[in-house]
Structure formats: structure tokens, C-alpha cells
Amino acid sequence: MANRHLNRLASWLAGAAVVFACNGIASAADCLRQNALGTSRVLAVDPKAYPRVGSNEFPKTLPLADHEVVLTFDDGPRPPNTQKVLEALAQECVRATFFLVGRSSAEFPELVRRIASQGHSIAHHSWSHQMMSKMPFEQAMDDIHRGIAADELALEGVSTNVPSTPFFRFPHFDSSPAMLDALQSRGIVVFGTDLWASDWEDISPDQELMNVIAQLESTRKGIILLHDAQARTAAMMPALLRYLHKNGYRVVHLVSAAQAEKKAETRH
Known about the structure:
- By secondary structure, this protein is α/β, with parallel strands linked by helices.
- The chain has helices at residues 2-15, 81-91, 102-107, 109-117, 137-156, 177-185, 205-219, 231-246, 257-266; strands at residues 18-23, 41-45, 52-53, 68-76, 97-100, 121-124, 167-168, 189-191, 195-196, 222-227, 250-256.
- It has a single domain (2-266), classed as TIM Barrel, CATH 3.20.20.
- The protein contains 9 helices and 11 strands.
- The radius of gyration is 18 Å and the shape is globular.
């Protein structure tokens, strides 16, 4: 099985509830570069219907069609790797969701604004990236709120623990029922994942790509977890995007239902 994937990869590299969905910005047709992958559509996520998503961690995930994927990135912003990831996404006119660590947002606020200015969604990944279940409940929630406040300060210039995009992913997927309930009560969607690149391991960019390809051959869709802080992921991204394009995958961009409704109101 591994040899089959390696041979296929080598051959290929040589050749190269939801409220509603609306037409995506940065679609392939709108992209300035011809034959780009593009973003196929925008999916507005209602936290009341989908409070927790990701089949590896929760019973429910996003209702994606066959060959639809959502690109998500954790642990940034972290130069220079985040910039390299952004360049790869921009080259293909693809929109993603970035789950930021608050202390990194405080250190690199200009990079947070750059992520947002390129049309990506800013989501949250705590302040300190520690194991939340090892903390007392109040300390863990304070860490979550502090991370949100740092992300929002970098993004909007205002420190608030009310996220403009109410998406959160626990570091290491480590939570507790009480924490999950607390975030659900605040209307914050907790993200797990459907597949991952294992890019936290000591592997090459080619091995990372093979990890994703092998899982996609099984799932054929899903939320993909990547880490923009990792140099191997930054190096792998152009090849992953080419693979998605060549094999008929469509990238879905996530926004919150409230953001989508507000945008719809401004158009009328």
C-alpha cells in the first residue's frame, strides 16, 4: 500500500447547521490567474445547528459534498512559514481558516491583518496552546478568552473576548465536557477535523503530502488540519493545491452565519 502511494506520488509530482451557501469569492472564474484552483463556494456555519464539527472528534461534521474540502491551519501566525502558506494560497486563489494562537497574534499583529486582508477567516486556538483538560476550568476558559482577545486586538485594534468569527479549536483536541458546553453557550463552534497531515511529526514535505492523499482517497472530502507554523507544511502547500486541482477537489471557505447575514444585509 505504501509503495503504491509513493509511486503514485512520485509519478504525479513529476507531472507537475449550515444556514446557507453562497457563491464564493475568489472562485476559479474570478481569479486573475488562469486555471487556478479557486474557491468553489462559501459556507456559512450556524453554531446552533453545528456547535461541534469534525468526524475524528465529534459525531457530526460539516455537510460537504463529495470532493469538497475545507483547509484549516493551526498554531500561527509564525513567520516566515505563515507568509509562505499565504503565498501558495494566493497563487491558487484559495481561501482558508486560520486558528491562531493568541500569544503569536500579540507578537505578529501585522501578520494577523495580512491573513484577514487576503480573505481568510480568523479563528482561535487559545492563548498559550496548553492542554486545556489539565487546567482548572476557570483557568482554561481564561486562557481561551485571552487568546480570542489577543487575536481580536491584532485584527481590529480592540481587545474583546467576543470573537468576530466564532470558531475555536482546542490545542491537541484536548477539552472537557464543561468547556465544550461553555463555548456552545456562547455560540462558538468547536472544530475538530476529518483528516490531518501529521505535520507535527518529523516527516518530509513529500511524506506529509502522501499522508493527506492517502486519507483523501478514503474520505473523498472533509476538514483538513494543517499547521502554517510548520516549515514542512509551507513547503508542501503548492504541491497539495496542485493535487487538489488535478484530482477534481473543490475548496470551500467557511464564515459564520452572522457574518454572512450581515454581508447580505449590506448588499440590500
